[in-house]
Amino acid sequence: MEMNFYIFFLAALIPLVIGFVWYGPLFGNIWMIEMGFTKESLAGKNMIPTFILSYVFGFLIAFFLLPATIHQMGVYSTLAGETGFAESTGDAFTYFQEFLANYGDRFRTFKHGAFHGVLSGVFLVLPIIAINAMFERKTVKYIAINAGYWVVCLAIMGGLICQYGM
User: 4, 79, 141, 155: which could form a disulfide with 114 (CB 3.0–4.6 Å)?
Assistant: First the structure.
């Protein structure tokens, strides 16, 4: 199973690109009100470190989405510890190659990856954001804006990774 590392670099850009639109023209004013920010309070900060770290974290998220969107990774991880597998030899490796030849293209579409990205957003990210927001005394609008952003990002990232990741 050969990984397409370039797609992870591309997918890591998705949160930055979507964030530019989401927290800009789409929901920027509402988000600033929910956060208690003003344009003046946000002005003048060096955003380069934030963008760099966001890209690095986006890269980590992209790697999380690999096994979440590509079902064949489950078989790979089950067999990876078998004798000879890492060296591309042995019965487990032969079985895996045959498995990929027969089933390697199953559920490998953008649509399927986007579906799993949405599921990750709704069933993992939304609850995490909501729990934090409740303790921080944030509003439902705050939760909807931030969770919605991640559902969209994960859908697009998941779609790219599922379609082109391996």
Answer: 155
**Please, which pLDDT band fits residue 2 given cuts at 50, 70 and 90?**
confident
If asked whether residues 82 and 112 sit together in one domain, one would say: no
The single-letter code of the amino acid at 84 is G
Q: Is 154 left (phi over 0), alpha (psi -120 to 50) or beta?
A: alpha
pTM: 0.92
Domain that holds residue 82: 73-106
Task: Identify whether residues 130 and 155 lie together within a single domain.
Answer: yes
Q: Which two tokens stand for residue 42?
A: 């946000």
Give 28-55 pLDDT, tens digit per residue. 999 999 999 998 999 988 999 999 999 9
Confirm if 100 and 1 have CB atoms less than 8 A apart: yes
- Domains identified in the chain, total number: 2
Transcribe 39-101 into DSSP letters.
HHHHTT---HHHHHHHHHHHHHHHHHHHHHH-THHHHHHHHTTSTTTTTT-HHHHHHHHHHHH
**Residue 84 C-beta-side C-alpha neighbours within 13 Å:** 9
Residues 63 and 25 in one domain: yes
